[in-house]
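In these records, each integer encodes one residue's backbone shape. Here is one protein:

___
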Amino acid sequence: MKIYTKTGDKGDTGLIDGSRTSKSDLRIIAYGEVDEANSHIGLIISNIQRNSIFDDIKKILLDIQQDLFVLGAELANPKSMKDDKMLVKKEMISTIERSIDNFESELPPISYFILPGGTTESTLLHICRTVIRRAERSAVALSKEQKINQDILIYLNRLSDLLFVLARVTNKRQKCADIPWKSN
């Protein structure tokens, strides 16, 4: 089978339910941004896999990649709510929350804003966090026009929180301080 089908050459694409829509549709934008975030997570994994101090983070990120694929598939199916084919479940959110609690216990509390940066690993996690935030905004916009599983919005929100925490953890484990924002 060839990778190119030529069916999208005029700016539309197929959805899981067989329907076609514009590539500029909010649904396509939302799951495209989820896919982009998943690719960024792959980049993070490739950067941390050689360092055993990140083995626990790598495992969680691999699980998140699986979750994001499922989440994207649900966004690609406009009938998921009608057919009760919701794939994103509350258990996925609970897993993210437990991870946040676990990793946050390694960190000192902060009472200031931090800038993205420090180590390469931390910076990559911050980039991914911002892509997830964009995907969340797109999913919210979609939810204003069409009914979607609200657990998608919660999952993306929690995931951005986890990525923030992981960015801090990767800095701390490498003995690199967070960079505080300084007001003028």
In short: The beta strands are 12-14, 20-22, 114-115, 179-180. The radius of gyration is 18 Å. The chain has a mean pLDDT of 90.
